[in-house]
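Hi,

I'm pasting everything inline rather than attaching a file, because the server keeps stripping attachments. The sequence lines come first, and each chain or strand is labelled.
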Amino acid sequence: MVEEKSLSVSPAQVASTEADDRSRWLTPLILQVILILLGLFVAFPIILAVLTSFKVPEDIINYPPTLFPDVWTFENYVTAWTSQPLARYFLNSVIQTSIIVLFQIITSILAAYAFAILKFPGRDVMFFLILGSLMVPFQLTFIPNFILISDLGWANTYMGLTVPFLASAFGVFMLRQFFLSLPAELYDAAKIDGASSWTYLWRVVVPLSKGSISAFGIFAFLSAWNQYLWPLIITNEPEMRTLQIGIRFFLFDQERGADWGGIMAATVIALLPTLLIFLVAQRQLVKGIATTGLKG
Amino acid sequence: MTDTTQRKSTPITSATIKSDRRRKLWQAVEGYLYLAPTLIVLAIFVFIPIITSFQISLTRVAPFGGATRFVGFENYTRLFNSQEYFDTIRITLLFTLYTVPTGIILAVALAILLSYPMKRLSWLHRLLIFLPIVISTAVTGVLFRWIYHPVVGYLNYVLSLIGVDGPNWLNDADWALISVSMAVVWRQLGFNTIIALAGIQNINEVYYEAAKVDGATVYHRIRYVMLPLLSPTLFFLLIINVINSLQVFGEINILTRGSQATRTMLYSIYDNAFVGTPFRGLASAEAYLLFLLILVLSIIQFRFVGRRVHY
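And the predicted assembly:
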């Protein structure tokens, strides 16, 4: 939807900071301060959670509340990890997310390849059908899907957690856009050399598209790891909960005991993998959102 | 193209026609084999459920786990005759009204600031402001439950510093929906700002230069040059944010557990279908009506707002 541009250094845009400008009050220094303050304000809930997770209980309920821990402790992480089957939740999330990401990457590569490179009757109709599925809101599908998965006996299983998400229309769309940018001569040349479509896909297209495949992988990871409604309804046995559902129950269990340190520790554990991804792949993520207008 | 050259070089025999046909057939089969995994998953979990969902909405399960029977549009008429249902519509629309304009205005303001040329630290500004894009609905819920806490929460503490006695955010019916809205605006902020910033950076600098030569102030440049040129982006943000606002669930589930004041249409669907005695027929009818609302709102936006967009 919006074209991509380098988001790193932008040229003078709305206003410039030249001396003769009317916006003289907005010096680089003041702007620097404003942006840092705004940034800290936006990131505040996360910073707060991280700092709270290292506080001792008395420190947390102190009034007036402090930002930094008086005494740094790792105890909350130990409690969170041992008082709750948090390790099990973590494992469940890892398994669920890995299966979804792996399958979405493979199924999306296959379909995107067919749409971008191959020619066959009904191709464009099929493409619009798949694109159309992006417009079907999940509240229209989750009740029948719940009934189907339950009837199959897949409630409280990894099958139930993952099977409805093994394909991604978003992935097909994103990878197709990239595959289309590969020169067509490449395909013709490979055909003349006697390569089959299958060989061409895995020997040429996939190696050339590592960047966009991994970009899609990041989106698939984030949306799978962060899933909430589906894992909530399809699991009712504690040992099959994912981390996101786990922290919800941890919160509701512990709130009366006001173990906010433990709750924040569990929350930090739940958001740590996504935070790491963000720090490592921020550029790819931002570019992906800016070019597709979608979040995955 | 290759077919014609082949035909020129070799005399047409029934055998070549046959092999040509077979090749074409294989091409078609091959294409669908590649699509099969995606098509099967989407068919089972997206396309067929559109129909089954409607079928379910026409049924009702007799009490005490009795048989499912066809009741026609009874679920729909029941909804239209209940004040509770209209309350969920009202709350949903209010929620959209609280979150969408706020979210877009904040995102555009942040994007304008981020678009200034900064020699230093611009990576840090972006890092901090884009951070919410990776945060889940569950984490958002937990974080804001802590911030809104009536006794140890930071929000009321900060308010007390300026002499304001903060309300009991999540349990006060007057504030609960606003509290949830603020949390959701926060979670969407990173995404919205990225889209807005990309839109701003797409605007050709020539326009600003021209305006500047004409002596336009920053305000005028933003108001009469940037915003009109940004209108396709703003329109896109509007559409996406309205749809998202109708589908918020995680924050409500964690912050207020779907209390009366925050019971949106989607929350009511979840509650009817999965909490306590399941009323799946009723919930499916609600799901269809919500889908209809999304459709109607999108059409209205395309018709009345889309028209004013400059492309």
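Residues 116 and 177 of chain A are 8 Å apart (CA to CA).

If the labels don't parse on your end, tell me and I'll reformat.
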